């Protein structure tokens, strides 16, 4: 073959490729005619001209298979249409498209499609509905839509507001890695089977109020706007592991029938679980809280809080909360539990049930200190201060030991400095020297005498003189009191 023939072949091949890449035009009327004749529709890579309006079809039904692959469809209306067989729109590009009230008796494949403006409100999908990789450029409605089998929305980009309110998902729903650029509404939605929102992004409001979610998975989801799950009902294992809540997270009045998992999540604003009910175990292990964690008037069956991190100033609000088991060591949360007597006493009882005796004592000690600080001056406050100083409100036996040593030291110094005791002229044994003079006590003698007085009674070879006899009586009374406090406190701490 000559070089001229080779060059001509190359040019011809390039021309054919160019022609093959260009979309051929097809009038919408031809498609309508095929449907009216009961013929299947199957086109790939065509540009439909005119308005593809099927809403006026006789019987409002497409009886045969309908397939438009990689097509360009400027305007289309399928309102109220029933697709009796499979409907394929894979890779197609829609301008304005309305599928309101449409019924899909076969499979509906909208994978990798793009819509400038679309509505699927009131649709019914009896077979799997596939929207993976689709693009919705403006506001979108799936309100009151029924998905009978699997619904796949993985990697979908919703650039406008999206509305799934009042929809029913009777089978698996898949929203993994979906991108919600504006507000996303899933209010009063019934997600009866497992739902997967893993790694999805909610840039606006995420509204799941009053929805029913079964085994929902929100692992590693980013909620940039408010996340609203108020009055939602969660069943099966619920997971928000690794999720980030950049704005308020609202779970008020929510109910978790089974285990809930929030480990590794990050709440950057208020975490509101007021009046929420956790009927099974809930885990907040290794979770970070930059704002308040509010469980006010909620119910907690079993909560794990190991290694959770609370930012300085963050509060744990447990007012009127019913607590069965709250597994968080007191040292980890003591600076964050908001003051409310009932909440502290509930935690004390919680630690008693867990058998965490040190945490029980520390929590009770903090409770008594805060309770004392909230009182006005009076006998009640004075008695509280004495109970604090003497025995640490009955949970610090070391306090009584310290005060006992201080008492012995002070009275020993008083007896020594004031020359308040003398050695008796009649020793316990040995001959008595005639006209002997009692000796002045040394500091060691004074401390020994003070110790014996504190514990029981003084040695008979030392006697108090003058007003120091009254000091002996005072020290003896203090000794009885402090020893009794020590024994009672020690018994409470050790014998239990």
UniProtKB/TrEMBL annotation:
Pfam families, per database record: Pentapeptide_3
Chain segments annotated as transmembrane: 400-421, 441-458, 470-490
Keyword Membrane: yes
Keywords: Membrane, Transmembrane, Transmembrane helix
Gene3D superfamilies assigned to the protein according to its UniProt record, in alphabetical order: E3 ubiquitin-protein ligase SopA
Keyword field contains Membrane: yes
Name this protein carries in UniProt: Pentapeptide repeat-containing protein
Organism expressing this protein natively: hydrocarbon metagenome
Lineage: unclassified sequences, metagenomes, ecological metagenomes
């Amino acid at each position: 073959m000559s070089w001229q023939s080779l060059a001509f072949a190359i040019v011809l091949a390039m021309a054919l490729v160019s022609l093959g890449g260009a979309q051929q035009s097809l009038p919408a009327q031809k498609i309508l005619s095929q449907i009216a004749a009961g013929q299947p529709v199957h086109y790939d890579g065509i540009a439909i001209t005119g308005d593809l309006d099927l809403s006026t079809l006789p019987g409002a039904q497409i009886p045969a298979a309908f397939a438009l692959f990689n097509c360009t469809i400027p305007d289309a209306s399928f309102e109220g249409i029933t697709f009796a067989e499979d409907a394929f729109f894979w890779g197609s590009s829609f301008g304005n498209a309305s599928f309101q009230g449409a019924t899909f008796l076969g499979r509906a494949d909208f994978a990798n499609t793009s819509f400038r403006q679309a509505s699927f409100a009131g649709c019914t999908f009896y077979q799997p509905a596939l929207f993976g990789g689709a693009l919705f450029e403006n506001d979108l409605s799936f309100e009151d839509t029924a998905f009978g089998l699997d619904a796949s929305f993985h990697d979908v980009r919703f650039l406008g507001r999206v509305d799934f309110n009042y929809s029913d998902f009777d089978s698996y729903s898949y929203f993994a890695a979906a991108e919600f650029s504006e507000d996303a509404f899933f209010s009063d939605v019934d997600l009866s089977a497992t739902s997967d929102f893993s790694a999805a992004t909610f840039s606006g409001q995420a509204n799941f109020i009053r929805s029913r979610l079964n085994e929902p998975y929100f692992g590693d989801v980013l909620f940039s706007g408010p996340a609203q799950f108020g009055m939602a009902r969660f069943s099966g294992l619920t997971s928000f592991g690794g999720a980030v809540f950049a704005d308020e997270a609202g779970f008020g009045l929510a109910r978790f029938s089974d285990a809930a998992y929030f480990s590794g999540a990050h709440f950057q604003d208020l975490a509101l679980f007021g009046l929420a009910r956790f009927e099974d175990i809930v885990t907040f292990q290794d979770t970070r809280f930059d704002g308040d964690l509010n469980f006010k008037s909620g119910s907690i069956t079993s909560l794990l809080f190991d290694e959770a991190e609370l930012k300085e100033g963050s509060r744990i609000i447990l007012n009127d909360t019913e607590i069965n088991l709250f597994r968080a060591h007191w040292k980890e949360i003591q600076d964050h539990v908001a003051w409310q007597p009932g909440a502290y006493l509930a935690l004390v009882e919680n630690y008693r049930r867990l058998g965490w005796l040190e945490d029980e004592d520390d929590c009770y000690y903090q409770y008594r200190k805060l309770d004392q600080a909230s009182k006005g001056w009076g006998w009640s406050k004075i008695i509280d201060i004495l109970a604090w100083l003497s025995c640490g409100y009955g949970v610090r036996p070391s306090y009584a030991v310290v005060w006992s040593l201080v008492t012995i030291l002070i009275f020993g110094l008083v007896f020594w400095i004031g020359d308040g005791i003398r050695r008796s002229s009649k020793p316990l044994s040995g001959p008595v020297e005639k006209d002997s003079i009692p000796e002045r006590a040394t500091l060691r003698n004074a401390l020994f005498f003070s110790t014996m007085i504190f514990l029981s009674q003084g040695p008979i070879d030392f006697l108090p003189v003058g007003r120091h006899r009254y000091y002996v009586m005072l020290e003896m009374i203090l000794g009885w009191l402090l020893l009794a406090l020590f024994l009672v406190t020690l018994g409470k701490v050790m014998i239990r």
